[in-house]
Amino acid sequence: MSLSWPFRRKHNQSVGLEIRPSAIVLALTTPTSAKSDAQILRVDTIAAQPAQRLLQLTEYVASHKLQGAACNLVLPPEFYALQQIERPPVDDSEMSAAAGWKIRDLLDYDLDDAIVEAFEFPDDALRGRPAQVNVVSARKTVLQDLITLVESSGLKLDTIDITELALRNLLLQIQSAEPPAKGIGLACLIMREHGGILVLVKDGNLYLTRRLDADMEGLGDPERQGATGQQLALEVQRSLDYVESQLGQVPPRRLFAASELHEEQMLKALDDTLGLQVLPLPSTEAGVAAAVIPSAGQWVACGAALRGQARLASGGA
Fold first, then answer.
1. Cα–Cα separations (whole angstroms), residue 204 to 121, 228, 239, 303, 312
2. d(Cα 254, Cα 127) in Å, to the nearest integer?
3. Which residue, 142, 148, 146, 83, is CA-closest to 115?
4. How far is the C-alpha of 219 from the C-alpha of 266, rounded, in Å?
5. What is the tens place of the pLDDT at every residue in 287-303?
6. pTM (predicted TM-score)
7. What are the φ and ψ backbone dihedral angles of 53, each rounded to 5 degrees?
8. Are 252 and 185 in contact, with CB atoms under 8 Å apart?
9. Helix (H, G, I), strand (E, B) or coil at 47
């Protein structure tokens, strides 16, 4: 899902930006001339309510001399819907419009008020079903407000992505550093206070996305820790079983996971229960400079910052 925007002076850095309900998260890439394997040299989280976003972001852009830098904006899940539908029988150029018409009854607002984009679902996961597409829908007013925010801050909007594709970018970067066995994908789980997202990526394609509900506070309570960990592991296992039984794919052997709350307890609970290797997201392999250690709440912005690298790794996707 991308959007071109007016030209400004060229800048040799780019910015991954996630706008969350009460914070702004930024990941800065190294200048293109830098002789380093790391792409991300800085990550920051700035507390900002909606009324404060423009001031906070503008001050950050000015203080880090980022005026004109390309910005890869990533939407948090609460700003959009992602659905899978049967592929409409139209040319690629008409796909988004046709997909919008097909999901119009599922929207809680008028189709005229929506921005709709579609991207392909892998053919080898169809198992005899008709061709499918993933459809992203969001309110025009929400996107326009974010576009105005980015442009008014001094950044140059390059693309708009969704969280699932930002996580795909991270896995592609890890995959390039530590390739999995042929035909086997990688999984990534990012948890926040009350839920999170699980994705499975193989050969640059998004095979599975799941939004999981979980009370992560329970992992910090000795009386609820066991039940909370088991329930989360069960939800992940159901998704992995679906990958094998319904998509005909070999389940991943590695799950990279991060949580804003009680990450250590979550990793242990998953590792004790699931039949695969559960690992924290590896900074260096994910393209982050050695001196930078992203928190769980910053990985999505890192994935947005790596969009250019992901496009190369996946052959232009």
1. 11, 32, 19, 14, 10
2. 24
3. 142
4. 7
5. 999 899 999 999 999 99
6. 0.91
7. -60, -50
8. yes
9. strand
